[in-house]
Amino acid sequence: MKNKKICITESWCKGCGICVEFCPANALTMKDNKVFLKIPEKCTSCGLCELRCPDYAIYLEVIDDDGKIDARK
Predict the structure, then answer these.
(1) Residue 72 covered by a domain
(2) How many Å apart are CA 69 and CA 2, to the nearest integer?
(3) Around 22, how many Cα atoms within 13 Å sit in the side-chain half-sphere?
(4) Is the pLDDT of residue 1 over 60?
(5) Has this prediction a pTM greater than 0.85?
(6) Is Iron included in the keywords of this UniProt record (predicted)?
(7) Is 71 part of any domain?
(8) What's the CATH code of the domain at 17?
(9) 14-64 residue pLDDT tens
(10) Comparing C-alpha atoms, which of 20, 15, 73, 14 is closest to residue 60?
(11) Are 5 and 59 in contact (CB under 8 A)?
(12) Domain range spanning residue 28?
């Protein structure tokens, strides 16, 4: 079993808001012109935010049951 966790590199975010618009769970918002995970428990780890971010500022990290990060996704 693998778990996915949303990660945001705030310094890379240019505040376009595309990820917020594509989030089907409305888990993301903009705060101080940067993307912010407003409701973590609503995030379904669907990956649409990662797919649509033109700046690669938001991504899903895949974690195995033993807590190791799986770079293969």
Answers:
(1) no
(2) 9
(3) 16
(4) no
(5) no
(6) yes
(7) no
(8) 3.30.70.20
(9) 999 999 999 999 999 999 999 999 999 999 999 999 999 999 999 998 877
(10) 73
(11) no
(12) 2-64
Number of domains in the chain: 1
Judged on CB neighbours under 10 Å (0-12, 13-18, 19+), 33 is exposed
Residue 69 lies in a domain: no
Q: Residue 28 is encoded by which pair of tokens?
A: 């993301």
Q: Which DSSP category does 19 fall into? A: H
- What distances in angstroms separate CA 44 from CA 29, 36, 51, 68, one per listed residue? 15, 15, 14, 20
Residues with Cβ within 8 Å of 71's Cβ and at least 6 positions away in sequence, in order, are: 62
Q: How far apart are CA 54 and CA 52, in angstroms?
A: 6
